[in-house]
């Protein structure tokens, strides 16, 4: 339950991304600067946090130990996640991008069988492939249905061109983010904490953002002061606070696929926060009709995820306690 609450809190800060990216686009800012500036602003704050905790050296040693994996999965988890997301904001409103982004819920569940977890046996520690969590997958589909209903009201007002360019890049991002995150957890093997991992991934991805910003200088020119300020806010709220909170929640759940799916499903609440934010800040009209049913389905799906995660966790604790009591029982005879 605690991890789910952290995930919901993170999604509130993630919502800032969709609202301000759309705001920057409406003001004439380029998606190139919206994406690259966020990570450039993130690095000093993450550096100071990790430096204050005296953990810099360990991060650099881990990167030196597995440079290819760090570059590859940081590119997937950060560059292939955020560049398509900001690009999509150029062609669709924040609610459409945030709604399409919820495909990451299903993607995260389907990615489970690609990974292994360790099991302690009498012969020693062995790696076992994760199985598809069917219950989590079905609950995620309920949430996804809710998101679809939210978009139904306004999707009919968009052209085919806006739908394709506003949704297709988000599909790429929705797979890249959980894949890169989980692969980096696997590479780190518990040796780095959340702040170290986020700092390392941001540091390794910087060359890609410098290349993109260089392209931006020649293609669209330098960013405006307003876009720089809004990118700075996104970097703090979404890049530092939300990403760290979300990674903390996934780190705590990494050995339990059902719980991990529930944490990833908390991102669905971003849609609610984006609708509220766009209504208040960008004067977007309030949703109505099927949208409210969609919101209800999202809430029901989140409650189901929370209930079954808590139930499974309690049953697991009871099994462990039962084994412990049996092992400590005196032998008669």
Labels describing this entry:
two-stranded antiparallel sheet, transmembrane, 13 helices, 2 strands, membrane, EmrE, 333 residues, mainly alpha, transmembrane helix
Tell me what the structure shows.
The protein has 333 residues and is mainly alpha-helical. The protein has one domain. It is 78% helix and 4% strand. It is built from 13 helices and 2 strands. Strands 1-2 form a two-stranded antiparallel sheet. Helix 1 (2-26) runs antiparallel to helix 10 and helix 2 (31-52) crosses helix 10. The chain is globular.
What is the topology?
Elements: H1 2-26, H2 31-52, H3 56-65, H4 67-88, H5 94-101, H6 103-110, E1 116-121, E2 124-129, H7 134-155, H8 160-188, H9 194-219, H10 225-253, H11 257-265, H12 270-281, H13 290-328
Antiparallel strand pairs: 1-2
Helix pairs in contact: 1-5, 1-10, 1-11, 1-12, 2-4, 2-9, 2-10, 3-9, 4-8, 4-9, 5-7, 5-8, 5-12, 6-7, 6-8, 6-11, 7-11, 7-13, 10-11, 11-13
Q: Overall 3D geometry?
A: globular
Major sheet details:
2 strands, antiparallel
Strand arrangement in the largest pleated sheet: 1-2
**Tally of helical segments:** 13
Report the average pLDDT across residues.
79
Number of strands: 2
Q: What is Rg? A: 21 Å
Oligomer: single chain
Percent range for β-strand residues:
under 5%
How much helicity do the residues have? Answer: over 70%
Tally of domains: 1
Distance between the termini: 45 Å
Helix and strand string, N-terminal first?
Answer: HHHHHHEEHHHHHHH
Could you name the ranges where pLDDT drops below 50 across 5 or more consecutive residues? none
Query: In terms of structural class, how would the helical and strand content be classed?
Result: mainly alpha
């Amino acid at each position: 339950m605690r991890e789910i609450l952290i995930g919901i809190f993170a999604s509130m800060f993630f919502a800032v991304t969709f609202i301000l990216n759309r705001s920057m686009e409406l003001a004439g800012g380029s998606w190139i600067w919206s994406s690259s500036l966020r990570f450039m602003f993130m690095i000093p704050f993450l550096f100071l946090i990790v430096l204050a905790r005296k953990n810099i050296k360990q991060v650099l040693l881990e990167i030196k130990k597995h440079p290819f994996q760090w570059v590859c999965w940081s590119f997937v988890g950060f560059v292939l996640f955020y560049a398509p997301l900001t690009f999509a904001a150029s062609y669709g409103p924040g609610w459409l991008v945030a709604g399409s982004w919820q495909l990451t819920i299903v993607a995260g569940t389907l990615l489970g069988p690609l990974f292994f977890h360790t099991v302690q046996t009498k012969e020693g520690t062995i790696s076992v492939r994760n199985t598809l969590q069917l219950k989590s997958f079905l609950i995620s589909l309920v949430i996804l249905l809710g998101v679809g209903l939210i978009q139904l009201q306004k999707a009919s007002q968009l052209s085919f061109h806006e739908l394709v360019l506003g949704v297709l890049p988000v599909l790429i991002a929705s797979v890249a983010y959980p894949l890169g995150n989980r692969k980096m957890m696997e590479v780190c093997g518990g040796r780095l904490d959340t702040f170290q991992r986020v700092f390392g991934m941001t540091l390794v991805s910087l060359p890609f953002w410098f290349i993109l910003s260089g392209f931006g200088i020649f293609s669209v020119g330098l960013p405006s002061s307003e876009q720089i300020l809004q990118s700075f806010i996104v970097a703090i709220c979404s890049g530092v606070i939300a990403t760290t909170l979300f990674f903390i929640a996934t780190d705590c759940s990494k050995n339990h696929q059902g719980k991990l799916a529930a944490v990833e499903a908390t991102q669905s609440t971003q849609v609610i926060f984006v609708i509220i934010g766009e209504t208040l800040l960008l004067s977007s009209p309030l949703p109505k009709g099927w949208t409210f049913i969609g919101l209800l389905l999202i809430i029901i799906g989140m409650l189901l995820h929370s209930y079954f995660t808590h139930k499974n966790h309690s049953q697991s604790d009871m099994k462990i306690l039962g084994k412990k009591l049996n092992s400590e029982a005196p032998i008669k005879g």
